[in-house]
Amino acid sequence: MCGIAALFSEYELDPRLIKNMTDAIKHRGPDSEGHENFSGQRAWLGHRRLSILDLTKAGIQPMSYNDRYWITYNGEIYNYIEIRNELMNAGYLFRTNTDTEVILAAYQHWGKDCLHYFNGMFAFVIYDTRTCKIFAARDRLGVKPLYYWQSPLGIAFASEIKQFGCLPYWNPKVNEARVYDFLSFAIFDHTSETMFKSVYQLRGGEAAELSLNDTGKQLSIYRWYELTPQEFSGSFDEAALRFNELMTDSVKLRLRADVEVGSCLSGGLDSSTIVCISNEILKSQGASQLQKTFSARSEHRKYDEGDYIHAVTKQLGVENYEICPALDQLFVHSDEITRSQDEPYLSTSIYAQWNVFRLASEKRVKVMLDGQGADELLAGYHTFFGPYFADFIKQGNLIGLMREMKNIKALHGYDVRFLLSLVANMLLPESIRQPLKRYNGRNTLKPDWLNIKILGIKPEDPFVVHGFKTDNVTAMSKSCLTGTVLPMLLHWEDRNSMAHSIESRVPFLDYRLVEFVLGLPDEYKLAQGTTKRILRQSMKGILPEVIRTRVDKLGFVTAEEIWMRKQRPQLFIKLLEEAIEASKGIINIKARTKAEKIISGQEPFNFFVWRLISFGSWMKQFNMQV
Predict the structure, then answer these.
(1) 132 is catalytic
(2) Is the C or the N end of the chain the one with fewer CB within 10 Å?
(3) Residues 310, 314, 315, 320, CA torsion sign
(4) Residues 374 and 491 in one domain
(5) pLDDT, tens digit, for every residue of 47-65?
(6) Do 209 and 316 share a domain, yes or no?
(7) Same domain for 514 and 601?
(8) pLDDT value at 288 more than 90
């Protein structure tokens, strides 16, 4: 896991620029650095290394193969051993034990089709010194970031947006449309655009090829991977067995490292599954030391999962470390977190996750497993009830609909009105849906606290515009995985872990597992009011029953509602006022009125206040212009 930088230009540039770009992300790779420029070719590669495989100097990047192909690479190819063996049988030689060299040999052997052989998370740029061709790619689901920015000097690639601030012509301006989506609908990273105007990202499953002579032209991007469900015709029990096999192999691959591997443990179904499977694998391998786990606790019982965390650690005997994110420390570190994230974030749950990775770093753990992707894949969010009900209505199965509404009310306590609103949100046309949202106090196209004229955009619902409005569980999963939810979660995961020089690995996002689960009938994931059915079934006898059968859900949360409403309400109002001023007219004073209603309890609690506070901090931190 590392940080990368690449510059390609029509002109000769100061070679110190590439070093400045890598210096800006020293946190991503504190173990070593490397830079290469190719005489007369106007190409520069830079790298910061976090040593995970082959800890010797042989793993330093940029790395070359056959004195022709050069790479700067961030990520892990988990099946690199199997690919290396295949390439060795084809006559290829290797001088290191790194996955980096395997990528280069695979590229020489298969060309751009090498991507289909990789099981991992990656973002890389390869430069062919013989043909002056550039090849850039990002993994299937976008676990690792890859940004690019084109300016009069050429094209630059980077792991983090802040790196572009080291280059000439950088003038950070807000991308009005994406800022609108974030502020009004609490979504970002759902397109190739960022909240910085003219800064783009390759999305998950995308790649680009270009010539050194074309750096001034618009980058041509193509999709190398389409998320395609693999149909499964077996029974529910057979599917659960297959799920367990795939999940176990995914975790096993992600335990490959030459350093210690730990796990995040929230006490929920997902992280507990990973910890339990890891424990079984390590014991079967005769490991002398079982894993370390890391958890966020809360001083407020409502938000604390200590009982569930201890159910896992007691059963397995793992070494657990806990941290309790404090309100006062939030204000100490909030600017630092904003800086590390590059873009504003939605809630203080990011602060909780940031603390967990900080704790792991203090205990000298360099690799962590985490449960991102499970909710999106396995219909874990209660928002999946909407498309689930909509499918019943489409089929004309009203008896089944009423039965399921009864089950969900019994298990989760939702009233019928709320459940019907979920259906309406999925099925009603926009002309009716938007007025209903206004009536219920939810996000609207033209909130009165947002100055649409300053943004200069046509207000549109991004969930509709980008095809995220769905009417069945599988379609909702695909939407969450590729657009609405997972890209944001992976963004936060990458920045929070790498801020503390930690590589985070996500076993639920092994593409084989994702394709398998998406190909299952919806009722294998959600039925009888129960979410994640296939996971629960597959973990019988492995997970503590108190976790396997739990129906509530928290994750790495904070007591933000208590902090805001009871402990420091005036401070949150003050920070909001500062955010309004920092927004340069984008947010107006009516935001304070709305915030006061939320804080006083006149409106239901949501993360509106912190979202605006974070936006204001971002505007100041990056000196954003409108």
Answers:
(1) no
(2) C
(3) positive
(4) yes
(5) 999 999 999 999 999 999 9
(6) no
(7) no
(8) no
